[in-house]
Amino acid sequence: MMDSRRSATLFGIPMKHLTLLTLTFQNSALILVMHYSRIMPTVNGQRYYTSTAVFLNEVIKLAISLTMALYDLSQDMPSFSSATALFTELIRRVFTGDSWRLAIPAMLYTLQNSLQYVAVSNLDAATFQVTYQLKILTTAIFSVTMLGQTLGLRKWSSLLLLMGGVAIVQIPASSSPAMPTFEDLRQANAGLHFPRTIQEMRDMGSSAAKQLVKRSATYEGIDKDFAMQHPQLNASIGLAAVLTACVLSGLAGVYFEKVLKDSNSKTSLWVRNVQLCFYSLFPSLFIGVIFNDGADIAKHGFFSGYNWVVWSAVLLQAVGGVLVALVVNYSNNIAKNFATSMSIVISSLASVWFFHFKITLSYLIGTATVLLATYLWTSDHGPRPLKIVVADYEKTTIGHEQPYSDNRGAPNTASRPSYKEALTTSRPSTPVNFERRGGGFKREE
């Protein structure tokens, strides 16, 4: 079955190549579109509220997960089953006894998505893309502490390289301006025009008054209105937001994997994602939309500041998890990380073209170090599994057993393990976020 998935095609194009290219485009476009949506000119004098975007993101994810869960369920149930029976069975599987445990990672994911908007509002798209790779580090730390997994020397080295690369990227460029000369001051004041009559002064005052937006006549609203019309990047706030988002991403991913391992019920991951999206609706709606921005939303409207750019950002973020699932399903997890690495390069080049981003030497060195760390992380699969002697498990060998051997070919005189034990001697590597081994759905925030 695995080989059939890997060899699947669409319009003659291998699915593993098509999904890999699509995920690379999605990773690159998402950060660029999200960043532009936070710095673009306002729509009708208003900028959209990030709480509404996070809520809509969860609604779209819920719709996609419900569709896929219903499709999987229809394949298992008899063909003559009614729609009522199908939905009743889905509701029964979604609201199982341990589904409430997913409320914790759901809240963490919601907060992480909100912090992503804060980060892209205060960091360049290229800088955010590189710094956000620290979620590999946080996931590894929580996997060791919460799941008891062990990491080899190569993986710890890759994590150290990752931290060093991100630190180098954060080094500010030395662009201290030179002391202006008298000639510079004279040219700067050349275009100034001072009014000579009362009428000219009145006209200048009227022109300045037309540029004031609503509420700017009072001292209380000046800062907020100016920040809305002229957004400024704050690297300190952006860095704090992206670091916190990385911690939440690692914690939520590992906690979700722990729930999957501890759960006794055999629930498909599409159903699990329905549960995640369902529980994510409550914090995104009540904490984000109602509590945080409720007064402004009631005044200006839920979709205030929305245009095609904002909708594109919401849709790109919502379909990201589906694309990750397809890549892991038709290819492997290494291909997913390769797509992430390629998206970093594409985002950097696109930022130079669209946002006039200046690629410094420190950024080049830091990005190259992060890409090297990602390669080392994905290329190390941990200890090799024991080599199983198939003849040991054939019926003809009963009565004259042979010892099994380790990966070096040395005989092991210990008692022979059972068939199931032999197949589980190689523990899966530490997850990046979380995933279902063997090509299941993966949620990527």
UniProtKB/TrEMBL annotation:
Comp. bias (Basic and acidic residues): 434-445
Keywords: Membrane, Transmembrane, Transmembrane helix
Residue stretches of biased makeup (Polar residues): 423-432
Protein name: Nucleotide-sugar transporter
Bilayer topology term: Multi-pass membrane protein
Taxonomic lineage: Eukaryota, Fungi, Dikarya, Ascomycota, Pezizomycotina
Region ranges (Disordered): 400-445
Annotated signal sequence range: none
Localisation: Membrane
Matching Pfam families: Nuc_sug_transp
InterPro entries the UniProt entry points to: EmrE-like, Nuc_sug_transpt
Primary localization: membrane
Transmembrane segments: 156-173, 235-257, 269-291, 311-330, 337-355, 361-378
